Amino acid sequence: MDICQHPWEDLGIASDLPCQPRPSIAERERVAQRLRGACADERLSLETFSARLDLVYSTRNQAELRALLADLPEPNPVGRIVLAATAWVSTWTWRLSDAWNRPRIPSLSLPANTSVVLGRSRHCDCVLSDSSVSRRHALLTRQEGGWRIRDLSSFNGTYVNGARVIDEVEVQPGDYVCFGSERFRLAPPAVLSLHVPHRLTHRSVA
User: Fold this and answer.
1) How far apart are CA 134 and CA 156, in angstroms?
2) Could you tell me if 138 and 149 are in contact, meaning their C-beta atoms sit under 8 angstroms apart?
3) How many Cα atoms occupy the beta-carbon half-sphere of 74 within 13 Å?
4) Fold for domain 107-187?
5) pTM strictly above 0.90
6) In sequence order, what DSSP letters do the residues of 87-121 get, joined into one string?
7) 52-110, pLDDT tens digit by residue?
């Protein structure tokens, strides 16, 4: 059985959870809203809340997502209705923002069968010229069954769907990634190099 590896140990949550279909955006938003409520009620410390909120957007299956709420009691019926309404509004707002920004955000093609280093250095496989990007900022890797992105100790951080990448997380086409202030929407591997966004400068990878 495949095992999903995540930094759950710091939260006291088991990491040996079987891989399942990835949670939807709406499901992640509902869990994030529960965590916000618990933090507001002082049932979670700010440090614990921040750590779990980062994990909400990097969980790979339903079991990992539920584990983030394992020590929090179920809300009462009224609270559940309020949370559901808030989650619906949050999801609707996110979808509206996604629809508005989609034509304006350049796409970044995922590597077909190799690893790609992104950064400001001309020696990187994918050169990002923005000053907020570190010389060696992040690594995109093609692995069996998908892709993973690793932050290379960049100064301004790497983000996936708004959550900072602490070490390495799984990504897929449609995810939003940020390298410093540079934002892209991940796309399937490009057939032609002409599909590469004009703000990027690629060098050939041996």
Assistant:
1) 8
2) yes
3) 5
4) Tumour Suppressor Smad4 (2.60.200)
5) no
6) HHHHHHHHHHHHHHHGGGSPEEEPPSSSEEEEESS
7) 888 888 888 888 888 888 888 766 555 556 656 666 666 666 666 666 555 578 889 99
